[in-house]
């Protein structure tokens, strides 16, 4: 029983971390209609930026926002030079290849600049464990969960209340209608791309101390994020948050009760099952756009 | 995309020139292979690398059946490559079968697996298909890591005799000539596929699936045929990598392998029959001569691909064609 | 055959909570040129897609050329003599005019890849038959001199003629044209009207169109749809004079 509760708590915390990555992915899909295969690379960039800023002398809590800014700046540069030209309203296979190539380039660049080996990301919460009602939790995990929930809640509020947030929602529901009603759709798309990338960077900065930084650290996470996003319905922010918790719990339970060595396949199997069993919800939009 | 018609006789003058052009290209390919085979001066390392490159070119061609043929990005195609590499390794090490039998088994298994996979996944298009495809290769890789028959994370090695009939592939020159001959054979088959009714159906589907369906083309069936055709070709490519690598590990199914092939196809030109093969040669030989670090290579080629996609989605040759067209326009004045 | 190319009764289509078609009845005699008009969002495209077998109706009976198109996959419907053009992606843009026709003759060819490799008689016959047919179709559509032009490079009106040529390769018994003259200039429209009259011999043609002049010039009868239901079915003059039709178009572009 204790093991189960411990597993569930771990799963929920894992889910909160996934939610950040998944929300970023879903915001980008919702407004740009591209699946960002480079999302995992930006996650890794977030962790490495944190690490490098910390090495320069900044404390972890200051390094996080700086790292997010760095990742957002790189995202902005890529958006302005590549994504804007190559991807919007063009064929789907172009966006898959370009985002994948961006991801490969980032991973290769990380290896060339920092090296291929895993590096610990220092965190003041790193070594401490907190006992809550008899269950042990690492302080870093609690911090991840708290920060994710706070950021996601703030983001949801911002989407509802702010003009720009409303415009993002409008573009993701009906880009043409949004254009006709005077919304600057290209600007909103750029903004969404930046926000999505920043969310991935933040997730990397938060999870870095827990899993340490390595060049391909984003892969496993982005696979999970695909599952989450597809499960919740591509483009749906609430769905992504809920999906993340479900997948987080599922992963933790599988790892504890079934097998650790097969856990990497679980994400893939889930993503395949979800796509095969629920294609109509996902395909609906994509097919309407053709003709 | 002139290739599609060059396959047709057209009943007229252009027909003759088209098949002549095809035969000419084939002769050129054979000549290039012979020149490379003898010209590399018996340097075993380069010959081995050239043999491996031919295998990689076959894989790029297989990937391009999906990419250039259907407009899909088969991220998980490395799974079929991996099946092709594991099958002869397992046949030799566990069953004592000869290499050729293992290759044949791998190709048959790849086709047999591709059929149900395609039946399940080819209703999906675009990013959804790519994600599922990637996912299946991920599952395959984890499976190879966890099973005993595949040797787990260490993989399989210490093969008995890598030979095709009398041709001993452990001799670098023989390896290269066999691989080059198979590459040319694959090129010839794909050339005729493209000029056939099936090839035209694929091209029609790539350009407009709805229009294709309204012309009576069974879109799903043709897409399935394309996958079932490309899977054994990928397996053949995987099998041909063994003499070079001498080992099969789960890494063989890494998505990076597919990405390499995608890059090769995109650089060479997805709309051209031989484009992916040319791209594969550029992709493996150039870094070798420039002595590039593998990571620099990935970086450079990824950036190159982004450039290609932004500036010339059909391949580098498009830049050339565009320049040539601009020149001739300028000369002719106003074209219709 | 009953003498009716299209017989539809009580056709309904619902998408989730939205009802796009509310029980439409339609009968088109064989050999007629029939119009389908109505304001945007009236359900014309949905009805069109249902008649071609691309979309399946939620209710009602649809018979085209005596086939139950609701029960057949779209490519089967197409193979049995139902052709249609699209508003967008009406041609294979990356290919030449001749290649477009090659793609279109898929259904008339039988050769396999092996027969192609061996240049077997089956392949030769297919290609010879294609050449004959393509020449005739290119002639009919006034495209003979453009055979090697890329489709994307053609003038807009010419592209629409190519879209028709692509469909003619399969010699459809019924041809659906989706807003064929939209965006054409007057000269192109006149040319296109002449083409449709020409190819209408021995064929039924159904046109969705906003251009009332083209509808008036071509159609013997039009079905007017508003809000997913039919308002009237009559000759173009009388249908357009119908008070309900006038009301539906009022404030939109009734006079064009």
TrEMBL record, chain A:
Membrane topology: Multi-pass membrane protein
GO biological process: amino acid transport
GO molecular function ontology, one term from the record: transmembrane transporter activity
Entry keyword set: Amino-acid transport, Cell membrane, Membrane, Transmembrane, Transmembrane helix, Transport
TM helices/strands, residue ranges: 12-38, 58-83, 95-115, 135-159, 191-211, 223-249, 256-277
GO CC aspect terms: plasma membrane
Domain of life according to the entry: Bacteria
Cross-referenced InterPro entries: ABC_transp_permease, BCAA_transport_permease
Compartments in which it is found: Cell membrane
PANTHER family, per the entry: ABC TRANSPORTER PERMEASE PROTEIN, BRANCHED-CHAIN AMINO ACID TRANSPORT SYSTEM PERMEASE PROTEIN LIVH
Membership in a protein family: Belongs to the binding-protein-dependent transport system permease family. LivHM subfamily.
Descriptive protein name: Amino acid/amide ABC transporter membrane protein 1, HAAT family
TrEMBL record, chain B:
Location, primary (coarse class): membrane
Membrane disposition: Multi-pass membrane protein
Transmembrane residue ranges: 22-40, 46-66, 78-95, 101-120, 174-193, 224-242, 262-286, 298-320
Pfam families according to UniProt: BPD_transp_2
Keywords associated with the record: Cell membrane, Membrane, Transmembrane, Transmembrane helix
Highest taxon of the lineage: Bacteria
Intracellular or extracellular location(s): Cell membrane
GO cellular component annotations of the record: plasma membrane
GO molecular function: branched-chain amino acid transmembrane transporter activity
Keyword check for Membrane: yes
PANTHER family for this protein: ABC TRANSPORTER ATP-BINDING PROTEIN (PTHR30482:SF17), HIGH-AFFINITY BRANCHED-CHAIN AMINO ACID TRANSPORT SYSTEM PERMEASE (PTHR30482)
Protein name: Amino acid/amide ABC transporter membrane protein 2, HAAT family
Organism: Albimonas donghaensis
UniProtKB/TrEMBL annotation, chain C:
Residues covered by the ABC transporter domain: 6-252
Keyword ATP-binding found: yes
Database matches in Pfam families: ABC_tran (PF00005)
Keyword field: ATP-binding, Nucleotide-binding, Transport
Gene Ontology terms, MF aspect: ATP binding; ATP hydrolysis activity
GO CC terms in record: plasma membrane
InterPro entries (UniProt xref): AAA+_ATPase, ABC_AA/LPS_Transport, ABC_transporter-like_ATP-bd, P-loop_NTPase
Superkingdom, taxonomy of origin: Bacteria
Identification of the protein by name: Branched-chain amino acid transport system ATP-binding protein
Annotated organism of origin: Albimonas donghaensis
Lineage: Bacteria, Pseudomonadati, Pseudomonadota, Alphaproteobacteria, Rhodobacterales
